[in-house]
Amino acid sequence: MSSPLIVDIHTHVYLPAYMDMLRSRKAVPYVHDPVNATPRLIILSSDDDPSIPVDERGRPVDSSYWDINVKLAFMRRHGINCSVISLANPWLDFLEPEEAQTWAERINDDLEQTCARVNQAGDPDNARSLHEKETLFAFGALPLSAPRADIVVNEIKRLKTLPHLRGVIMGTSGLGKGLDDPALDPVWGALQETGSLLFLHPHYGLPDEAFGGAEVINRYGHVLPLALGFPLETTIAVARMLLAGVFDRFPTLKILLAHSGGTLPFLAGRIESCIHHERKFVANGGNIPGPQRSVWDVLQTNIYLDAVVYGTAGLKAAVTAAGGADRLMFGMIMNFAEFFSAVILTSAQALTIPSFLHWILLKTPNGLV
């Protein structure tokens, strides 16, 4: 029996064109290059503290982010057969409206060309099995700050013509008003119509006040925003989609949630109970339609989860909430691999490859893998 095929769907890159764009900026987010030191990414407003020397602001962005050869070596070292790379947050959300379309096309073309070049070099005749090589695909970035939703829709449709693009990645702000914004309906419609997978990833977190204020954040660094803020941000975003009836209007929309769905697997029952008893909804005498489908139905039909939860208890909860291991996808976040638990790798390797991963690997316009 052959070993399981390991497909890493949560692995980020800042490709050279994106790094160059960040280097050209002076406002957050931007990249600063200290003399004889690793570049620094100033990604959050709190990172851009004038009291901190500029060479120490933000976080280091080493070659694991932008050198694709480092990523391929990482894949070989950990036995990963395929990586679906994606632009790391904050994606293109911060761009001026007139720049968004041009940069989205440039970044997505860069992703396509990178994947094509790597796959061609690794298997020129396309004769080796997936177990015998490292293969790259990608999730595209969207021009969400563009002045019109049809620009986003057109990019979603264009991505379907790029052989190595397998969906899109986006954050929780959508067009700027959250994922329950009715203006996003054309985007949801385009994703559903094209059968494109949406990889939903946090970035904005929660206000500092949720953790006790800026002084507490400064005291404990990134622990509270990343460990708690990111998962809750994801959970809130999906809950707003549910409450707004997004999954009722777009019943075949497919979403992959980062970090095993945040706290959604644990809180799904509580969310469902609150919906059932909410007096504002028509079902209880109110005047707001409310969601028609249950949280559990959406979780087990529309939503996939990655395995980036760093513990067996969380992994088991994700499998249970998702409706089975075949709806959980392996993800490693290469750039944080020092903190990666071997337990998760072992557990994820034991999972049966989901049918949707076969789609990611094999569904191309010209049959290429």
Automatic annotation (TrEMBL):
Matches recorded under Gene3D superfamilies: Metal-dependent hydrolases
Coiled coil region boundaries: none
Residue span(s) of domain Amidohydrolase-related: 7-331
GO terms for cellular component: cytosol
Xref: SUPFAM superfamilies: Metallo-dependent hydrolases
Keyword set includes Metal-binding: no
Domain of life: Eukaryota
Any one GO molecular-function label of the UniProt entry: hydrolase activity
Ranges annotated as spanning the membrane: 339-361
Keywords: Decarboxylase, Lyase, Membrane, Transmembrane, Transmembrane helix
A Pfam family the protein falls into: Amidohydro_2
One GO-annotated biological process of the protein: secondary metabolic process
Family according to the record: Belongs to the metallo-dependent hydrolases superfamily.
Name of the protein in its database record: Amidohydrolase-related domain-containing protein
Organism: Aspergillus hiratsukae
Origin organism lineage: Eukaryota, Fungi, Dikarya, Ascomycota, Pezizomycotina
